[in-house]
Amino acid sequence: MTTSTEIAPATGKLGVLTPGMGAVATTFISGVLAARKGYADPIGSLSQMAHIRLGKRTEGRNPLIKDFVPLASLDDLEFGGWDPYSDDAYAAAMKAGVLDSRHIEGVGDELRAVRPMPAVFSSRWVKNLDGVDQVKDGEGRTHMDMAEALMEDIDSFRSDKKTERLVAVWCGSTEAYEAPSEVHADLSSFEKGLKESHPAITPSQIYAYACLKMGVPFANGAPNLTVDIPSMVELASQEGVPIAGKDFKTGQTLVKTMIAPGLKSRMLGIRGWFSTNILGNRDGEVLDDPESFRSKEVSKLGVLEHILQPDVYPSLYGDIYHKVRINYYPPKGDDKEGWDNIDIFGWLGYPMQIKVDFLCKDSILAAPIVLDLALFMDLAARAGKSGIQEWLSFYFKSPQVAEALYPENDLFIQHTKLKNNLRHMMGEDLITHLGTEYYDES
Predict the structure, then answer these.
(1) Does the structure show a pLDDT above 70 at 359?
(2) DSSP-H helix ranges across 196-350
(3) Structural domains in the chain, sorted by start
(4) Per-residue pLDDT averaged across 138-159, rounded?
């Protein structure tokens, strides 16, 4: 046993703010409401469904994670957020078409009460959304004015809902790709850029700045830079607030981070990995813009390199042809299809192939991630953790790490790291899976 971390109790209400209240956010909210009414189980959520082994296998200690660490209760969650469309959560969920109406109607009154606040939005960063009907008026107002308006929203939500604590999880669209520039290099430059409405500052970065200044932990579910820039890391450290990101690991990349570690563990070579996706929801519409697709492509392409370590294993992985495609196909709706062709080779270089066709529901896979991130980020804040929460890499395609470190993308290593961090917080021994001859049986 080790010394446990001092963790403040999860008293009172926890507000969960989602910039973006479309398919992912409304599926998350609907599912939590259904779970706390006993209509359905929160399947896919580690925080609610998973057990965690403690001590030796012979001890038989295997509690649910939610019974092991002091997480906020689903009954104590309050929901809010921002969106450029004025639909309440009920209308947005119906339009998204992810859930059957019977699941939405069962929590319809609660969903109708969740109305998004006007969004900070710019078609410069998200081109393919039409008909937006509630955005904060940018005429004559600086980016800093927008950030301060968001801070007022946060303060009002906290007061109206009487929440003890808040967390924010980005559930909005993928922004156009742009590499970090001088304005992102440090907090002083970023705040100067906000006041001058620097064109390289994105809406998601304005949200992140506002949340961190208000002491609200922020997790980024899109491939946008958002908090993955030095200025936001500096701000999170200064304010003592946790941050995490980026890009929810769902669908094709989830499968990729399962298969690639298995091939590597057996020292099987890979010559090529072709991945294509078709999807038709708002995410697909946004990604039909080449600049937004570039953000997603950068996020997806880095996964294999970090898992396979081609510099360490050049003969096996040093010459992979890796291609990713995303195609907008409206009839699919939220039912995304990810198809992979993997050309591998084994003993004496003989070729083989793996083909995967994953017909998944994007928001169904993302919703439990939003729940877990909200609860674990709140736990981190109550445990006094600040800055990048690398132990939550399990949930992201492109995990954010400290400068000079490479991200760990192996799903199974990420899973071990997450559980070991929970054990460490609670003063339990870490699980190393050494053989029994190495255990102290005294």
Answers:
(1) yes
(2) 203-213, 230-239, 251-265, 282-287, 290-308, 314-317
(3) 13-248+364-425 (3.40.50.720), 251-360 (3.30.360.10)
(4) 93
